[in-house]
């Protein structure tokens, strides 16, 4: 084998989850300050805004590249991965869709309510592929994640997980080609092809994959891993902007440090809690929070207090959904799967 997975430590995984908790919080603060003001206008200027908070999504994609390849290196069979991802994503998502649908209608958020049929189609998580509106706009990233999972699983099935450099280099080259075709020739290449290959976001995933390989695997090609990582950063600097390339380099350094267990501050109780609820916080915060802010400000509540109310509600709902739905459902589904797998294996023997 060209790579040997190193044992994962719980502290390192806690630090990675803490980074995701920070990312979700940044996105939430961006939505409640800058984005809300763009869509609905605060009654007064808030005490602070976070116009760059949406880059938390890019950090999400990087960490997904890291975690998904780590997961695939540790599963024994493809269905292990499928059950792991399904149990992690869908039960909490289904409840979040229902809660967001009901509260968005109850709060009367202009331009953000959808019909019951549209909400039902959201439950498949890939509704964006057929242009069905989102119950909550943040769901667009979940479709990107699912497409990434599918391509990563395909590499696993083809036995190319440890020889991923060529595939990733081709994707980076395609991302650059799309950019050059548009800028130099004014040609818009196929959107569908680009979307299915997640080309606009692939450099961020590549950064995470390479950092995983460099920090968690005993590889025979660390220089090649580093070269592909640098290529992804350069591509972002070219196709997005030099500051975005610099951001990618900084986030890569942050992820690298956390993956090596050198950021113990991330394991503190508050960040560990945010890391535990990051997924449900991401799912629930946007439309519900906007509705709360809008109704509070209409009632004369101070703009900063209205934002704090939305933050408190989002954190409370995320904690409740994590404890009552996400964790129990994930545990139940994985236990049923393990029991069935053991039974099948015993019968086969």
Quick summary:
This protein has 349 residues and is mainly alpha-helical. It has helices at residues 10-39, 56-74, 78-107, 116-122, 140-157, 165-185, 191-196, 202-216, 222-239, 242-259, 269-298, 303-348. It has twelve helices and no strands.
Word description of this protein:
With 349 residues, this protein is an all-alpha fold. Helices cover 74% and strands 0% of the residues. It is globular, with a radius of gyration of 21 Å. The model has no long low-confidence stretch (mean pLDDT 94).
Q: Tags for this entry?
A:
single chain; 349 residues; mainly alpha; 12 helices
What is the 3D form? Answer: globular
Residues in β-strands, percent: under 5%
Number of strands: 0
Which residue ranges are poorly predicted, with pLDDT under 50 across at least 5 consecutive positions?
none
State the oligomer.
single chain
Write the layout of secondary structure elements.
Layout: H1 10-39, H2 56-74, H3 78-107, H4 116-122, H5 140-157, H6 165-185, H7 191-196, H8 202-216, H9 222-239, H10 242-259, H11 269-298, H12 303-348
Helix pairs in contact: 1-2, 1-11, 2-5, 2-8, 2-10, 3-11, 3-12, 6-9, 8-9, 8-10, 9-10, 11-12
